[in-house]
Write a structure and sequence with these properties.
2 domains, 3-stranded antiparallel β-sheet, 2 helices
């Protein structure tokens, strides 16, 4: 998700304050961005991002497994191997409580929020 750079910087600072900086990787593309995601990025910046991306893939080969029952705070959308949820706007937040064995999903939001949940490739 693209956010103003100050949001990313605040996130990195908060992670550090919480002792979680080891799980955050942050590389800022100075002067990049705009109407296009990679707008104004130099060839060196794009090359560095490709290197970091490949390094990340090599270091994290084990796929993420989520528990059969739990909750997520969803900002706009969430995709997992077993289900996905899309809120009606990326500007909205919701809490998703789920139980995969029971195929139950509960979505709560402080503002009116429509959503679509899909199980695998078919809608629920």
């Amino acid at each position: 998700m693209r956010v103003p750079v100050e949001h990313a910087r605040k996130f990195v600072r908060a992670a550090k304050q919480l002792g979680k900086s080891e799980i955050v990787q942050y590389y800022e593309l100075e002067n990049a961005g705009g109407a296009e995601h990679w707008g104004n990025a130099t060839e060196q910046q794009i090359s560095r991002m490709a290197e970091l991306s490949e390094e990340n893939r090599k270091n994290h080969r084990k796929p993420v497994e989520i528990p059969d029952k739990g909750s997520f705070v969803v900002g706009g959308y969430l995709f997992t191997k077993k289900f996905s949820i899309l809120l009606d706007s990326v500007d909205k937040m919701a809490v998703l409580e789920y139980d995969l064995k029971e195929k139950k999903f509960e979505v709560r939001s402080e503002v009116k929020c429509d959503f679509c949940i899909k199980w695998g490739d078919s809608g629920i």
